[in-house]
Write a structure and sequence with these properties.
With 417 residues, the protein is of the alpha/beta class. The chain contains 19 helices and 15 strands. Strands 2-1-3-13-6 form a five-stranded mixed beta sheet, sandwiched between helices. A four-stranded mixed beta sheet has the order 14-7-12-15. Strand 4 and strand 5 form a beta hairpin. It binds beta-D-galactopyranose. Beta-D-galactopyranose binds next to loops.
């Protein structure tokens, strides 16, 4: 299977580079923000596979969970006229760069390998500009997860994961009474926004989430449901330890691992950290969706920037093909905590959290409750997302009332739209 695929890819690439004398199997400079233990392990599988095919990989990691620092670095590189070959970039950001004429397409590879047949149509659309693929997706991450330490929960007699925010609050109150930090959290704007959007899903449901955080509907943004969402976020603020400001997300995961906190609310890249530390799901740690029947979608992809030179162009084609290969999608996602973007990769070797993610994803698509992540740049433009992050973080770090938060948020979004 692997050999057949390699031959097919080689044929494709030969056809694509016909008439050019490529010197090697391609060179890429890859800009990404995967620097935590689990993330580094996952991106390492891509580097190894690319090098195994004879390519040269130049690594450009920009530390900073959620990618805000990486996006700043990217802009500087493009402005300087020196873009990286491939960039971890996603959602509407892909379209924004494409509109500026900053991207190369990889449609030839996509045609030869029939990507349209193996990607969920909604994801394929995000990867295309003007009908042509300019990016290749590596995974499907779910944002709305609780991660918990079962030994810590057992200390207060809790054996089941909470299914409503009231349930969660009750368990958290018990942990507080026992002198245990209920919620491991890192006070960074993207992390604050992550827990905020999960709360919105639980308090308002998927339709409300879409109206407020995707369609930016003013009635939804100023509704009592939004006030109630901020009320729950205020509750969560009461459950974090005093050292939360500025903490990286993977350090919060480590607090749960070490039994220093009961829960973390984070996307399933947190599972990559547990796995990299040798922890077993269902035994050493528990996963369960946060309340609200829905699925908050986050998908990582690599986008190909406008570079020139046979070697770089070939690098882009080889990388695109590799990213979309079933073998890579399996290996990478086993390490990353996510599930494959391709729909035809068997999940037999994946753990119970991944199986749950997949089952819930299928159910969410069927019931129309799949929503794109605001916090992780799948839903709205960077500038409007920035307004959400600023306000949510200001709320989290002050005694602002929920009513004031809702009004300020609506005003800021209206100005930015
Ligand atoms: C997300 C990204 C994930 C993850 C996380 C923390 O935005 O999609 O792959 O690693 O940031 O860095």
């Amino acid at each position: 299977m692997q050999t057949i695929r390699k031959i097919a890819v080689a044929g494709t690439l030969a056809a694509l580079s016909a008439g050019t004398a490529a010197k090697s199997d391609g060179t890429v400079e890859v800009l990404h923000w995967w620097t935590s233990g689990g993330e580094a392990k996952a991106v390492g599988t891509l580097k190894e596979a690319f090098e195994a095919q004879g390519g040269v990989w130049n690594d450009s990691p920009i530390a900073g969970g959620g990618g805000d620092a990486a996006m700043t670095a990217l802009r500087a590189r493009v402005v300087a006229g020196n873009p990286p070959t491939a960039v971890q970039l996603k959602g509407p950001g892909i379209q924004e760069w494409a509109q500026q004429g900053a991207l190369n397409e990889v449609q030839g590879v996509a045609d030869a390998e029939d990507w349209d047949a193996v990607l969920p149509p909604a994801l394929a659309e995000i990867m295309k500009y003007d009908g042509n693929y300019v990016a290749a997706p590596v995974n499907i991450h779910r944002v709305d997860w609780f991660w918990a330490n079962p030994e810590v929960l057992a200390k207060v007699g809790v054996t089941e994961m909470p299914t409503t925010w009231d349930d969660f609050n009750a368990v958290a109150d018990k942990l507080m009474a026992a002198g245990i930090t209920p919620l491991a959290h890192g006070g960074q704007p993207w992390q604050d926004a992550t827990i905020f959007e999960d709360v919105v899903l639980g308090v308002g449901g998927a339709d409300f989430f879409r109206k407020a955080l995707v369609d930016l509907d003013m009635d939804a943004l100023t509704s009592a449901t939004m006030v109630a969402s901020f009320d729950q976020l205020r509750k969560l603020r009461g459950y974090v330890d005093p050292n939360f400001p500025g903490r990286d997300w993977n350090l919060a995961t480590a607090m749960v691992m070490r039994g220093e906190a009961g829960f973390q609310i984070m996307g399933d890249w947190a599972k990559g950290e547990f796995l990299a530390a040798g922890k077993v799901p269902g035994k050493d740690f528990l996963c369960a969706p946060t309340p609200g029947s829905g699925f908050v979608l986050n998908s990582d992809s690599f986008t190909f920037f406008k570079v020139s030179g046979d070697d770089n162009l070939k690098g882009q084609q080889v990388l695109a093909s590799l990213i979309m290969s079933p073998d890579f999608q399996k290996t990478f996602n086993l390490a990353k905590g996510s599930i494959p973007a391709r729909t035809d990769v068997p999940l037999d070797d994946f753990d119970i959290c991944a199986q749950k993610s997949h089952a819930d994803l299928v159910a969410a698509v069927a019931s129309g409750s799949l929503v794109p992540s605001m916090a992780h740049e799948m839903a709205i433009s960077r500038s409007v997302r920035g307004e959400f992050l600023d306000l949510v973080t200001e709320f989290f770090n002050s005694d602002m009332s929920s009513e004031d938060a809702v009004q300020k948020l609506a005003d800021a979004v209206a100005r930015a739209m």
